[in-house]
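[agent] plan:
  1. take the single chain provided in the ticket
  2. run structure prediction with default settings
  3. attach structure tokens to the ticket
  4. add a short note for the reviewer (M.T.)
[agent] executing step 1
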Amino acid sequence: MPSGMAKNCLHAISTATFPNKDEDYAVKVGLRMLTLRHMVMGVDGKFSLTPKLAHIVQYYANAIAHHVESD
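[agent] step 2 finished; step 3 output follows
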């Protein structure tokens, strides 16, 4: 599972994108889409943001952050 900024970005994207709030499904789909777009790298089950594209993921996460309840 991702950690730090990657986890926060994925959480914001996943919970805002899927109205049914199925986080497991949302994270799987979100990781697949971000991986296909080369925004996230996955190695041995661990994921991290691609450094050169992290600002794009952060931009989108910030754009939908108001849809996510803060912890």
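[agent] step 4 note for reviewer: The chain has a mean pLDDT of 76.
[agent] ticket updated
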